[in-house]
Amino acid sequence: MNNEEPFIGIFWFYNGSVMFSHAVPLSKGIHYGNAITGTKDHADYWEELKKGSLSILPAHLRTEYFSIPRGRVVYHSDSDQFFVYHGNNLKKKDLQQVAKLFHLPKEKTIFEQDLHYCDYSDEDWSTIFG
User: Fold this and answer.
1) Is the pTM of this model over 0.85?
2) Residues near 11 by Cβ (< 8 Å), separated by ≥ 6?
């Protein structure tokens, strides 16, 4: 059993692994009603990463924070569960890497696809929203 404090925050996935993340211990998170989330958002943290860390990505993927798959880990105190919100392009083994990195307890972790993090073509969007 893992006794380490779970983390919450944001992540990006690329080429089979979590490429970038900003995680904080649950006890240091920001409270929004019944949710506790990390201290950074994708857009602002991507700007920080542009100062050097993004050089490991191909140039065409460095411009926008949504260029590679991303997600967020949030704790919901009302259900005592961690939610890993992610897009439509991560596989189960990818999500397991995220759970391990963030020290999430298996029995309290829910993986939930969230439209906000999905990567759809214009045709896909018209199907979704009619």
Assistant:
1) yes
2) 18, 20, 21, 22, 23, 70, 71, 72, 73, 98, 101, 102
